[in-house]
Amino acid sequence: MARARKRRPVLFSSVYLKTLRDYRVAILGWGIGMGLVIVSPMASVGTLINTPAARATLATLAAQFAWNAEPVAAGTVGGYATFKIGIFIFLMAVWPLLAASRMLRGEEETGSLDVLLSLPRTRLQVALQKVAAMWTALLVMAAVIGGLAYLGGVAFKGDFNLIDGWLFGLNLALFCAVIGGVALVISQFTLERGTAAGVTGGLLLVFIVVDMVHRVIPNTDWFSHVSPIYYYNLSKPLIPSYGTSAGGMFLMLALAAVLTTAAIALFARRDIGDAVRVPGLGGFARPQPASRALPERDWSLGSVYARSLATIAAPTFWWTLGIAGFAAWMVVVVQQLVGKLDTLLASSPNASVALNALKNIGGGGNALTATFLGAMFELLPVLLMAFAITQVGRWSSDTDNGRLEIILSTPQPRVAVLLGRFGALATATVVIGVLTLLASALAAAIAGVTLDSVNLAEATLGMLPLGLLMAATGYLASGWLRSAAETGLISFLLAGWFFLSFVGPDLKWPEVALRLSPFYYYGTPLLHGLQFANLAVVVVIAAVSLAVASLRFSRKDMSP
Amino acid sequence: MTAPIIEIDKLTKSYGGKRGIVDVSLEISEGEVFGFLGPNGAGKTTTIRILMALLRADGGRAQIAGLDAWDKSVEVKRLIGYVPGEPSLDNNLTGGQILEYFAHLRGGVDKAYLKTLIERFDLDTSRKFRQYSTGNKRKVVLIQAFMHRPRVLILDEPTSGLDPLNQQEFDGMVREARDDGRTVFLSSHVLSEVEKTCTRVGIIRDGRLVRIGGVAELKDIKRYEITIHFARPVPADAFARLEGVSDVEWLGDGSAVRLAMQGSADAVIKAAALHPVVSLTSDEPSLEDIFLRYYEGDGQGPKEAAGVV
């Protein structure tokens, strides 16, 4: 009798394959998503370069936006896409940042690494297989992104081939591997993956700004060499005339390898569940004597709201620094850019058309400083909404992990617990908004930039409803979805809304489609002030979302 | 009999198509210490989580102090101290911060009593939750459940991870709660603990309550063993057909017999008295034995336990 052969589940046969299996959705989702991000600017370039004059103007105008990216062959499909992606490189790095933070530290937090390390394998083997899986995932993503870039080039008449597309993907993957390596190293020094991800995210912003410096301030190339993004930008494979820098790519590969090796070496030597102790930073602090005292005067322990506020304080500080800092920086550098733009606009009839396209979401007006700043300020609500996503993720993760169970055993209505958490997040967004307003106003005063103070207040404070909308949507989604799915969904929603407003106007999409994005209702407040009727739409949707989220939370079964 | 403080009537819950609990009914009087026993996945935690309004029942009713556990959950939770089966707390808070936080959420507690509990468990409140051992984490969770002297304590496997010394402390706290007239609903796998602390026990299996009764009453349905040594061999059929004897095993040359018993031993004692007895020993079953019997794979447990003792 023929013996029935038992099928061996291949993807569970090694740590490497199991980890790769865990990444399967990300490979596809992130690969395709990021591929479409690259392709979307290609779709709009045709309308901008339909005449040689327009092409020349676009190229010249792009030079004024060098802070965003080096404008090389901006009048071509590949050049325009490379330029337009610019600082949005941070979007690409989000996945490796999260995956690397979770890889070892996240598994330690859940305790699953204890079980894995009880198997007859060395720590080195386990860590290497996990890293190898992540690098493999990045390579597959690179292939998908490169393939989609190539298809975009074919569709919109780009002059680069499939190899160029793949080199573009590979360059991106190498940069992502560096960021993953940074996250992996940092996660050896933190006790939580969230902290590692947060610190790496902060460093990523620093890398972006450091790379930006040499394009804004002359003779500062040496300074930008510190940023890995500088080496990423050395290659522009979608611009065949510019090509690929083997040196830059090799340097990123070497950097990723060094960082990863360092992280694995630290991991192999430290206690599982503990962080690497740094002398002088509390690592060798004298042990505290045992105490039975209670912190009776700690303000943060008085209510769910106060506790949530204390929890959210540190990320709020860093995000405020980032958002308010970005706004202030824009105000400071706007003067010199506007001077050049003024000359250009006076000399070229096509420039205003191109300018509108470059600043993405529209605007316009007589005050060029405000026009330019208006475009830049439209990035602020995006950042605030990203902040909201990270904080809603904490709520859904608490719900998943049973962290609310004992809180819900106290005589607190469920709705009060949810609103306490939401209230803390709302307070944090208000703090970010107000400090962004103060930082912008201060920067304007110092740099001598004249801005309409009412419009400035409306631009900075008007982004609050958008942040709250994002938060309410997240709370709503977490009523049905588990943490990872909830975060994925609302991140996708934010990306969708952003690109609707980013690409939609270029593609002459109908107004009804543009209205699907909350950025439409935010408008261009720095130029035209807030349209309060429009903003009321956002407020109403946020309120309804929060009401439904509260209703759902008050009736749902809590995860065991 | 005191009025029931916990009333569960035909409580049913399923997860998608998967069985949770089915028609579970029981009443627990005020001042009672009730042990809820069952293997993993039997439905203990589901029952407890419905009482705590963490889950909503598909059918049936759960009331505490006459209040519906779901509709009046806030009022109900004023009366309750709760230890979840898998406690999860903020890792970044110290034990002291956690206790202070929950004291506030409960509207304030007697700080002197709270400090007594901290002393009793010898808890270092200055360490972060993540730095605690499993046992110390459990201490924090236990203290937060007892600190407001709740009228009802609902404890899901409360001593898991505690060392014997602290288990003893916990047993003492349960006894004190009982002496104060408070009610304890306790699920456990540690049967000796249930035997020591509980007045009544319910056994749940495959989502159904298969037995409920006093600890002593449960022992009455025991299968116990009697071993009798005689001065000389006795006839082999002397005990086989006696009432209460379910199995007979002759030892040695026939001068000793081991009898598996259920119910009264009166007939056996009278039959043994017809012969010269050297010694007679009876082995009392532990609750463990009874418990295991209900979970034997033969499916006999539910049949035997059709009625409440």
Q: Can you describe this structure?
A:
The complex is a heterodimer of chains A (560) and B (309). Chain A is an all-alpha fold. In chain A, 71% of the residues lie in helices and 0% in strands. Chain A has 24 helices and no strands. In chain A, helix 5 runs antiparallel to helix 7 (123-155), helix 7 (123-155) runs antiparallel to helix 12 and helix 13 (304-347) runs antiparallel to helix 16. Chain A is globular, with a radius of gyration of 25 Å. Among the domains of chain B are: 4-79 and 150-219, P-loop containing nucleotide triphosphate hydrolases (Rossmann fold, 3-Layer(aba) Sandwich); 223-283, Lrp/AsnC effector binding domain/regulation of amino acid metabolism (RAM) domain (Alpha-Beta Plaits), CATH 3.30.70.920. The longest helix of chain B has 16 residues, at 164-179. Chain B has helices at 44-51, 73-78, 95-105, 111-121, 134-146, 164-179, 191-197, 215-220, 266-272, 287-294, 300-304, and strands spanning 4-15, 18-29, 33-37, 59-64, 67-68, 80-83, 152-156, 183-188, 200-205, 208-214, 223-230, 245-251, 256-262, 277-283. Chains A and B meet through helix 13 of A and helix 2, helix 3 and helix 4 of B.
Describe the protein's topology.
The complex is a heterodimer of chains A (560) and B (309).
Chain A: H1 15-22, H2 24-48, H3 52-63, H4 77-85, H5 89-110, H6 112-116, H7 123-155, H8 162-186, H9 193-216, H10 221-224, H11 228-232, H12 246-269, H13 304-347, H14 351-358, H15 368-377, H16 380-400, H17 414-447, H18 453-461, H19 464-478, H20 483-503, H21 511-514, H22 518-522, H23 525-528, H24 532-555
Chain B: E1 4-15, E2 18-29, E3 33-37, H1 44-51, E4 59-64, E5 67-68, H2 73-78, E6 80-83, H3 95-105, H4 111-121, H5 134-146, E7 152-156, H6 164-179, E8 183-188, H7 191-197, E9 200-205, E10 208-214, H8 215-220, E11 223-230, E12 245-251, E13 256-262, H9 266-272, E14 277-283, H10 287-294, H11 300-304
Parallel strand pairs in B: 3-8, 3-9, 6-7, 7-8
Antiparallel strand pairs in B: 1-2, 1-4, 4-5, 9-10, 11-13, 11-14, 12-13
Helix pairs in contact in B: 3-5, 4-5
